[in-house]
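Aim 2, interim progress. The first record below pairs a target sequence with its structure tokens.
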Amino acid sequence: MQLTIEASKLSNTLQRVQACVAKRTSIDMYKRILCEANDDGLIITATDLESWMQVRTPASVLGDGKTVLPHKELKAIADKSEGELSFNISQGSTMIEVSGEGSQYNLALMEPDGFAPIQEREVDEWLHTTAWELIRALRLTLFSVSEEEGKFAMRGILFEAANSTLSLASTDSKRLSVAEAKLSEPRTSEKVWNALIGKNCCNLLLQNLLRIPYGTPVKIGLNYNNCYFKTEDSVLMIRLSEGRFPPFRDVIPKLNKMQTIKLNREGFLVSLERLKMMLDDECRRVKLNINGTSITMNITHTKVGEGQVIHLLDQPASVPVVLNFDPEFLLELLANNELNDEVAFHYLNSNKSVLFTSDRYTHLIVPLT
């Protein structure tokens, strides 16, 4: 294998695959990356055996070949180098020579035969969207994923496609987030399309999407137990989570039966944060008294004392109500900058779930009793 590549391009590629490099494994090979040089350039693959990330980057290839190299050391070399780096493996050598301007390194290599490749299987249908649509939907749902060990099917995000929309849903049984991503092309198949992807893999997907231009086209496909996210120069393959995600649409109440008030998201967040100093593990309840043109927020801490903040509404609420919530749920939702400046708040009575809606987004919270 012999090639020349820009150090900055190599560094960027190594950064993109970094999150897929296995960290907790006894198999040394998966702490490394698979490097393959061919007519398409340099193709780098990393895996933790739950997800695989493969990125192609331009390179001047003088000799085809593939090998397994240490990611950490190669990344450090690329970060510290300027201009071009040359790679060369002599016939029968156990080392690869990496040389740049005024520097030379010899890195130990491993044979690539045991490195588990991306399973390139035929996909019946590809969904088309953009990096930004996925970024926005992931940011609006990741915080609602359950952290409880026993709720295995809730420890991820459900991807569900219909017509021209890809819906992402997450829940921890006390709240539910549903965000819609626009598909660039309507679906051509009537088959059910859904995929349950674990939280760690969703975070990995988000990290990689944030490293490419927001307008980048992304193709999404399903095959067997894997989900593929492809761009022009990369493919991320994720092993699907097991379990049956709850029928989330059944628990979302009908808006036409609910009362609605409009909230300035940032203003309401500021009002709520003025009570934040009263919160700790012993105090996890805020009472909202919605009446007329104001929302009175109260927190009572048995050891610290009481706090009250009055938030004024632009338009009066037609039906008064008293609701109790875990304040962290409200703070986490309202701090999400992917929401519109104005958020609609829908309620029925003190005992029923409430909804917060924004552009192509629905968030349900179950009130405390």
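The second target in this work package is listed in the same format:
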Amino acid sequence: MNKKVKRKWLKALRTLIKDGGYRQGQGRLCTIPNDPDSEESHKTDYSFCCLGVLQNLYHEEKGTEFDPDHFPDGQQSPEVNEWADLNSENGKDIHIGDNFLGLPEYEAYSDHLAEMNDMGANFRTIANWIEKNL
């Protein structure tokens, strides 16, 4: 993973909301306030999954607008993966352990992070995982 992008991502995930950090959400890269399709539509601010934070950092750096509705299925855009250098062989798939036969099991980094996020891991826990594994 690109070291500069990784530092930005880790900092963003570890910054508290009261200090200007991101509000964490689940199920989508970004939940728009008052979005009728969202369970979090009653909240007054945008909320992001950990991958949405990375997507937003990309758009901030490029000076482009992040349109959450363009990625409703929660998939990371190829441009962001390229920018973050997560298209490389070791960035795509990660070893998550061994299966019941004792064979190594791999999963796409984005699937693993999305699952961590949506199963309730907070941004700090996710940042620690990213720091160690990507």
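The mean pLDDT is 81. This observation will shape the mutagenesis plan for the next reporting period.
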